[in-house]
Automatic annotation (TrEMBL):
This is YIP1 family protein. The keyword Protease does not apply. It is a multi-pass membrane protein. GO terms for cellular component: membrane. Keywords: Membrane, Transmembrane, Transmembrane helix. Its main location: membrane. Residues 25-180 form the Yip1 domain. The keyword Transmembrane applies. The chain crosses the membrane at residues 46-64, 84-111.
Length: 200
Protein backbone atom coordinates (compact mmCIF):
# COMPACT_ATOMS: atom_id res chain seq x y z
CA UNK A 1 0.00 0.00 0.00
CA UNK A 2 2.98 2.33 -0.14
CA UNK A 3 3.86 1.91 -3.82
CA UNK A 4 5.63 4.89 -5.37
CA UNK A 5 5.33 4.94 -9.14
CA UNK A 6 8.32 6.61 -10.80
CA UNK A 7 6.48 7.88 -13.87
CA UNK A 8 2.76 7.72 -13.18
CA UNK A 9 0.40 8.51 -16.02
CA UNK A 10 -1.77 11.33 -14.75
CA UNK A 11 -0.34 11.07 -11.22
CA UNK A 12 1.01 13.81 -9.03
CA UNK A 13 4.41 15.48 -9.26
CA UNK A 14 6.81 15.30 -6.31
CA UNK A 15 8.29 17.93 -4.03
CA UNK A 16 7.10 20.77 -1.76
CA UNK A 17 5.82 22.89 -4.65
CA UNK A 18 3.81 19.94 -5.95
CA UNK A 19 2.20 19.46 -2.51
CA UNK A 20 1.28 23.16 -2.37
CA UNK A 21 -0.08 23.05 -5.90
CA UNK A 22 -2.14 19.95 -5.16
CA UNK A 23 -3.54 21.63 -2.04
CA UNK A 24 -4.67 24.67 -4.01
CA UNK A 25 -6.06 22.62 -6.89
CA UNK A 26 -8.14 20.26 -4.78
CA UNK A 27 -9.66 23.21 -2.91
CA UNK A 28 -10.45 25.26 -6.00
CA UNK A 29 -11.07 22.68 -8.75
CA UNK A 30 -11.85 19.39 -6.99
CA UNK A 31 -13.72 17.70 -9.83
CA UNK A 32 -10.90 18.32 -12.27
CA UNK A 33 -8.32 17.39 -9.65
CA UNK A 34 -9.86 14.02 -8.83
CA UNK A 35 -10.43 13.32 -12.51
CA UNK A 36 -6.81 13.92 -13.55
CA UNK A 37 -4.63 13.83 -10.43
CA UNK A 38 -5.33 10.35 -9.12
CA UNK A 39 -3.42 7.51 -10.80
CA UNK A 40 -3.41 3.75 -10.10
CA UNK A 41 -0.56 2.71 -7.78
CA UNK A 42 0.64 6.28 -7.24
CA UNK A 43 -0.32 6.77 -3.63
CA UNK A 44 3.00 7.96 -2.18
CA UNK A 45 2.36 11.64 -3.05
CA UNK A 46 -1.07 11.27 -1.45
CA UNK A 47 0.51 9.88 1.71
CA UNK A 48 2.97 12.78 1.84
CA UNK A 49 0.07 15.17 1.31
CA UNK A 50 -1.96 13.65 4.16
CA UNK A 51 1.06 13.82 6.49
CA UNK A 52 1.57 17.51 5.65
CA UNK A 53 -2.09 18.27 6.34
CA UNK A 54 -2.04 16.39 9.66
CA UNK A 55 1.14 18.15 10.78
CA UNK A 56 -0.29 21.54 9.76
CA UNK A 57 -3.46 20.80 11.73
CA UNK A 58 -1.59 19.65 14.83
CA UNK A 59 0.88 22.52 14.55
CA UNK A 60 -1.97 25.00 14.33
CA UNK A 61 -3.56 23.51 17.45
CA UNK A 62 -0.31 23.74 19.38
CA UNK A 63 0.37 27.30 18.22
CA UNK A 64 -3.06 28.75 18.99
CA UNK A 65 -3.86 26.52 21.97
CA UNK A 66 -0.65 25.69 23.86
CA UNK A 67 -2.68 23.82 26.47
CA UNK A 68 -3.30 21.11 23.84
CA UNK A 69 0.40 20.22 23.69
CA UNK A 70 1.05 16.86 25.42
CA UNK A 71 3.28 17.27 28.48
CA UNK A 72 4.75 13.78 28.62
CA UNK A 73 7.98 14.69 26.82
CA UNK A 74 9.40 17.51 28.91
CA UNK A 75 8.97 21.22 28.17
CA UNK A 76 6.37 22.61 25.77
CA UNK A 77 8.79 23.08 22.87
CA UNK A 78 10.20 19.55 23.06
CA UNK A 79 6.74 18.10 23.61
CA UNK A 80 5.40 19.92 20.55
CA UNK A 81 8.26 18.72 18.32
CA UNK A 82 7.99 15.11 19.52
CA UNK A 83 4.21 15.18 19.11
CA UNK A 84 4.44 16.53 15.57
CA UNK A 85 6.97 13.83 14.67
CA UNK A 86 4.64 11.21 16.12
CA UNK A 87 1.78 12.57 14.01
CA UNK A 88 3.92 12.56 10.88
CA UNK A 89 5.47 9.12 11.33
CA UNK A 90 2.66 7.12 12.96
CA UNK A 91 -0.72 8.80 13.32
CA UNK A 92 -1.22 10.17 9.82
CA UNK A 93 0.03 7.12 7.83
CA UNK A 94 -1.79 4.63 10.07
CA UNK A 95 -4.99 6.68 10.08
CA UNK A 96 -4.93 7.08 6.31
CA UNK A 97 -4.46 3.40 5.55
CA UNK A 98 -6.91 2.16 8.17
CA UNK A 99 -9.53 4.55 6.85
CA UNK A 100 -8.77 3.44 3.29
CA UNK A 101 -9.25 -0.19 4.32
CA UNK A 102 -12.64 0.65 5.85
CA UNK A 103 -13.58 2.73 2.81
CA UNK A 104 -12.67 -0.13 0.50
CA UNK A 105 -14.95 -2.53 2.37
CA UNK A 106 -17.82 -0.05 2.15
CA UNK A 107 -17.19 0.51 -1.55
CA UNK A 108 -17.50 -3.23 -2.12
CA UNK A 109 -20.98 -3.00 -0.61
CA UNK A 110 -22.13 0.07 -2.54
CA UNK A 111 -20.19 0.20 -5.81
CA UNK A 112 -20.00 -2.78 -8.13
CA UNK A 113 -17.41 -1.56 -10.67
CA UNK A 114 -14.81 0.51 -8.86
CA UNK A 115 -11.19 1.62 -9.02
CA UNK A 116 -8.44 0.12 -6.87
CA UNK A 117 -7.37 0.56 -3.26
CA UNK A 118 -4.53 2.88 -4.26
CA UNK A 119 -6.97 5.36 -5.76
CA UNK A 120 -9.09 5.21 -2.59
CA UNK A 121 -6.04 6.04 -0.46
CA UNK A 122 -5.33 9.05 -2.64
CA UNK A 123 -8.90 10.32 -2.55
CA UNK A 124 -9.00 10.21 1.25
CA UNK A 125 -5.60 11.89 1.51
CA UNK A 126 -6.44 14.78 -0.81
CA UNK A 127 -9.91 15.23 0.69
CA UNK A 128 -8.25 16.28 3.95
CA UNK A 129 -6.89 19.44 2.28
CA UNK A 130 -9.19 21.96 4.04
CA UNK A 131 -8.19 20.65 7.46
CA UNK A 132 -4.69 22.08 7.13
CA UNK A 133 -6.40 25.32 8.18
CA UNK A 134 -8.44 23.81 11.03
CA UNK A 135 -5.81 24.04 13.76
CA UNK A 136 -6.94 27.30 15.43
CA UNK A 137 -9.67 26.62 18.03
CA UNK A 138 -12.33 28.53 16.08
CA UNK A 139 -15.51 26.42 15.89
CA UNK A 140 -16.75 28.11 12.72
CA UNK A 141 -13.46 27.44 10.94
CA UNK A 142 -13.16 23.84 12.10
CA UNK A 143 -16.76 23.05 11.21
CA UNK A 144 -16.37 24.58 7.75
CA UNK A 145 -13.12 22.68 7.12
CA UNK A 146 -14.62 19.38 8.28
CA UNK A 147 -17.76 19.78 6.18
CA UNK A 148 -15.76 20.82 3.12
CA UNK A 149 -13.43 17.86 3.60
CA UNK A 150 -16.38 15.47 3.85
CA UNK A 151 -17.80 16.98 0.68
CA UNK A 152 -14.46 16.52 -1.09
CA UNK A 153 -14.39 12.88 -0.01
CA UNK A 154 -17.83 12.30 -1.50
CA UNK A 155 -16.84 14.10 -4.68
CA UNK A 156 -13.57 12.21 -4.99
CA UNK A 157 -15.16 8.81 -4.44
CA UNK A 158 -17.84 9.65 -6.99
CA UNK A 159 -15.37 10.79 -9.63
CA UNK A 160 -12.61 8.23 -9.15
CA UNK A 161 -14.88 5.20 -8.69
CA UNK A 162 -17.36 6.44 -11.30
CA UNK A 163 -20.46 6.06 -9.19
CA UNK A 164 -23.48 8.18 -8.28
CA UNK A 165 -23.56 10.88 -5.65
CA UNK A 166 -26.07 8.89 -3.58
CA UNK A 167 -23.85 5.80 -3.54
CA UNK A 168 -20.78 7.91 -2.80
CA UNK A 169 -22.53 9.52 0.17
CA UNK A 170 -23.66 6.14 1.50
CA UNK A 171 -20.15 4.71 1.17
CA UNK A 172 -18.39 7.64 2.83
CA UNK A 173 -20.62 8.48 5.81
CA UNK A 174 -18.64 6.37 8.28
CA UNK A 175 -15.11 7.18 7.02
CA UNK A 176 -15.96 10.89 6.82
CA UNK A 177 -17.29 10.80 10.38
CA UNK A 178 -14.09 9.19 11.63
CA UNK A 179 -11.67 11.42 9.72
CA UNK A 180 -13.38 14.79 9.73
CA UNK A 181 -15.79 14.45 12.62
CA UNK A 182 -13.45 12.84 15.14
CA UNK A 183 -9.92 13.18 13.78
CA UNK A 184 -10.12 16.83 12.78
CA UNK A 185 -12.56 17.75 15.60
CA UNK A 186 -15.48 18.59 13.32
CA UNK A 187 -18.08 17.09 15.65
CA UNK A 188 -16.82 19.10 18.63
CA UNK A 189 -16.91 22.30 16.58
CA UNK A 190 -20.44 21.66 15.33
CA UNK A 191 -21.63 20.78 18.84
CA UNK A 192 -20.14 24.03 20.15
CA UNK A 193 -21.87 26.04 17.46
CA UNK A 194 -25.20 24.32 18.04
CA UNK A 195 -24.96 24.96 21.78
CA UNK A 196 -24.10 28.60 21.15
CA UNK A 197 -27.00 29.10 18.76
CA UNK A 198 -29.39 27.33 21.13
CA UNK A 199 -28.35 29.59 23.98
CA UNK A 200 -28.79 32.64 21.78
Amino acid sequence: MTTWVDDPEGGRARGPSAVARAWAEVLVRPVRFFGTGVAPGDQAPGLVFAVCVAVAFAGGRFLFDPASIPTAFGGPAISAVVSLLFVAVFVAPAGLHLTAALQTVLLILFVRDRAGISETVQVIAYATAPCALAGPPVPELRAACALYGAGLLVMGIREVHETTTVRAVAATVVPASLVFGSGFRGFDAIATLLARWYII
